[in-house]
Write a structure and sequence with these properties.
Order of helices and strands: EEEEHHEHH
Number of strands: 5
Number of helices: 4
Structural class: alpha+beta
Radius of gyration: 27 Å
CATH class of one domain: Alpha Beta
Largest sheet: 5 strands, mixed
Distance between the termini: 106 Å
CATH topology of one domain: Ribosomal Protein S5, domain 2
Strand content: 15-25%
Strand order of the largest sheet: 1-2-5-3-4
Oligomer: single chain
Shape: flat
Helix content: 25-40%
């Protein structure tokens, strides 16, 4: 009988350098040095909103607010969180919004701005909560049912 020699080989693998994880801590800093981010939702619209210290400029989907929204009521709703916190003209808004119609998009931006301001300074929370701007409006369109024209509208009743 012959003995077989088992040859063992060892492979050396180089350890991959671990990626550094940088955590941004938002501590007790001044309100001027912070950038706030908030996600707003209304109906089928979703808005991503960044609020930065500035002069009150509003940009929606890379367009000026006057070009994006036709109605003055939509433009006025975007400013409500600043009126509630008494910071009108002190912050710029940059946002991207998808889905829904113009009213839903304006409501989504309003919700996102309120959430972003809440993250910038904790002292704004009470004023925003009191005016109801931090609460998401959960009303959505009711679905259409079969046998009906719309969600609830039915055919005309015929006695004969």
């Amino acid at each position: 009988m012959t003995k077989s020699k088992i040859k063992t080989t060892t492979t050396v693998t180089k350890a991959k350098p671990k990626a550094k994880i940088v955590k941004l801590s938002i501590g007790p800093k001044s309100a001027d040095s912070l950038v706030g981010y908030g996600t707003g939702r209304r109906k089928n619209a979703i808005a991503r909103v960044w609020v930065t210290p500035g002069k009150g400029q509003i940009v929606v989907n890379q367009k000026d607010v006057d070009l994006y929204f036709c109605r003055d009521t939509h433009k006025r709703t975007l400013i409500l969180p600043f009126v509630a916190t008494k910071t009108t003209g002190q912050y710029d808004i940059f946002c991207t919004v998808k889905g829904g119609g113009s009213s839903g998009q304006a409501g989504a931006i309003l919700h996102g701005v309120a959430r972003a301001l809440d993250k910038i300074a904790p002292e704004f929370h009470q004023a925003l909560r009191k005016t109801g701007l931090l609460t998401r409006d959960s009303r959505v369109v009711e679905r259409k049912k079969y046998g009906r024209h719309k969600a609830r509208k039915s055919t005309q009743f015929s006695k004969r």
